[in-house]
Design a protein that fits this description.
Length: about 425
């Protein structure tokens, strides 16, 4: 496992700022690794930034919009508790199973073109799950999860390539957009369903429209920098690198807690006495609060010598919020929801930041992103499934504390390894 190179003056002073770290990344290629082709400068960075934000806004509504309506959908279609659990697990599982396709598609068609095409597939999947009854519901959920998995792998590489000097800040902006999309869908889906004559199908299907809008604004990105995609690199050694596995496990385990919240928090709160609208608003409020730490946590974490302390803090807040929402009196529910949101906004944005900071260049970042999200989201899918299984066996929610504790402890241990200021030890080969 290789450590980051020393500053030019050979001092042992730790790298304290993201700009310093990124400057070292540029000059730190190992002697036996080919120097990657530099991407041409972005002609209109504001247009790329707008496109990235709009794309990111679409990477959570397909997941968070289902939870507030899960009881209504299950009752309408006659789904059992096990089928409802499968419905919350399938999209997350597809995030992991289809993530390895992203680098292959990008090498064949170009990253920007793949993002555009998959956005349209995402919109189609969201529409499909609102049609054709139970078959369409599950098929559309699979399509939506697969689409989000592919796009989610590609965007960190674009950030590393085109915003290398501001990777932490841009990762925070990207994460903020993810959180905003999730919060909007969680809070607005039930009111939209009520407005359209209590039609859960319309309440879910309306989230295809933002995907179409994002595709329109992303279209200009497909016609530029074509030469940058003709040179491809194969990255070897990730699966043998302990640091890569620590990044992957941290991504997967913290994501497992996030998708438990997306898939089950409203149902848990309804079980504690809230109405579906109230439960959706609490979840939406918790997710909207993530905007604060989504932007600030990566920025603050790159001001120290490594990210371990930041990981411990945000994971501790996440666990406190989860236990509060599950066990604490309902009078203080909003306070615990805010703590949960602040914690989860930081855990996810730090997970994305670690992919960038543990990589020497954009090629390694793209492949580490594929591993962390491909394997990580497969691990993450077990969380929502376990919640559904435990709920079916026990008939209640109290036993979920054990799931929260085990997953949270594992995420913290993996994060302590992934948060060290080192790079993954891999080789990049031109193909």
């Amino acid at each position: 496992m290789s450590r980051p190179p020393s500053p030019p003056n050979d001092s042992l002073e730790p790298v304290r700022h993201l700009d310093d770290l990124e400057e070292l990344l540029i000059d730190a290629e190992a002697d036996d690794e080919p120097v990657p082709l530099q991407a041409p400068a972005v002609v209109r960075p504001w247009l790329l930034l707008l496109g990235l934000v709009l794309v990111a806004l679409n990477l959570r509504p397909a997941l968070s919009s289902m939870a507030p309506l899960l009881s209504e959908v299950s009752e309408s279609l006659g789904l059992s508790a096990a089928q409802a659990g499968l419905l919350t697990t399938l999209p997350v599982l597809c995030l992991g199973l289809f993530a390895p396709l992203a680098p292959l598609l990008a090498r064949r068609f170009g990253t920007e073109r793949v993002v555009l095409g998959i956005l349209l597939v995402l919109g189609g999947g969201i529409v499909l799950r609102s049609c054709l009854g139970e078959t369409g519901l599950f098929a559309g959920s699979i399509l939506a999860g697969a689409s989000i998995g592919v796009i989610g792998v590609l965007l960190p590489g674009i950030i590393k390539r085109d915003f290398a000097g501001h990777a932490g800040t841009m990762t925070g902006v990207y994460t903020m957009a993810l959180c905003l999309g999730a919060a909007l869908a969680a809070g607005a889906t039930v009111p939209l369903s009520d407005y359209f004559s209590n039609s859960w199908a319309i309440g879910l299907g309306v989230w295809a429209l933002p995907a179409v809008v994002a595709a329109i604004f992303w279209l200009p990105q497909t016609s530029k920098r074509q030469g940058a995609h003709h040179v491809a690199y194969r990255v070897r050694g990730l699966l043998r690198d302990p640091l890569a596995w620590q990044v992957t496990l941290y991504m997967g385990l913290q994501s497992s807690l996030s998708y438990i919240v997306f898939g089950w928090l409203p149902s848990i709160l309804i079980g504690r006495g809230l109405t579906p609208t109230q439960a959706g608003l609490v979840m939406s409020g918790s997710v909207i609060v993530q905007l604060v730490t989504a932007l600030s946590a990566p920025w603050l974490a790159t001001r120290g010598k490594d990210q371990r302390l930041a990981i411990v803090l945000v994971m501790s807040m996440t666990l406190a919020g989860l236990f509060g929402c599950l066990y604490a009196p309902l009078d203080g529910l909003w306070g615990w929801a805010i703590v949960l949101g602040l914690g989860q906004g930081g855990t996810f944005s730090l997970a994305l930041t670690l992919i960038v900071l543990r990589s020497r260049d954009a090629h390694v970042a793209a492949n580490l992103s594929g591993m962390a999200q491909g394997i990580g989201y497969t691990v993450a899918s077990m969380g929502p499934f376990a919640v559904g299984l435990v709920h079916e066996i026990t008939g209640g929610w109290e036993a979920l504390g054990w799931i929260f504790a085990v997953v949270g402890a594992g995420a913290m241990v993996a994060g302590l390894g992934a948060g060290r200021a080192r790079y993954v030890n891999v080789r990049s080969e031109k193909i």
